[in-house]
Design goal:
Length: 135
């Protein structure tokens, strides 16, 4: 369904192969089961946010190209999907309760994702540079 020339729910974005491979090297597991949706109306409802996640899904308010150009955001969102939703630690209810208790910034799920991204970003960049130099 289209509204004003745009798809109402966004469009699936396929990661470039080097990006997917670098993510798999960082996380030590496949990322092919994660669907990325760019220009998602649902994500845009989260005012001020570039992305939101659900099990096996990253919904972007921005383009996929913008997403992969920001390694901190990329790693942060993949951490939510793979290490939090994927293990069952993160649920909608737990996230809402944690956010109500501590707020978005101090939410344990957000803190953990930020810490992971900060620790992993240089390794991701090294993997990506190595993959891009081999093309």
């Amino acid at each position: 369904m289209r509204v004003g020339g745009r798809r109402l729910f966004g469009r699936r974005y396929l990661l470039p192969a080097p990006v997917a491979t670098a993510l798999e090297q960082v996380f030590g597991e496949p990322v092919s089961g994660v669907t990325v949706i760019e220009h998602s109306c649902y994500a845009r409802l989260h005012l001020g946010m570039s992305a939101t996640t659900r099990p096996n899904r990253i919904l972007l308010a921005i383009s996929g190209t913008e997403f992969i150009a920001n390694p901190d955001l990329l790693l942060h969102e993949y951490f939510h999907v793979l290490r939090q939703w994927g293990t069952g630690r993160l649920t909608r209810w737990r996230y809402l309760v944690e956010s109500a208790r501590r707020g978005y910034r101090a939410n344990e799920y957000e803190q953990e994702a930020r810490e992971f991204a900060a620790a992993a970003v240089e390794l991701y960049r090294v993997y990506l540079a190595d993959l891009n130099s081999n093309e």
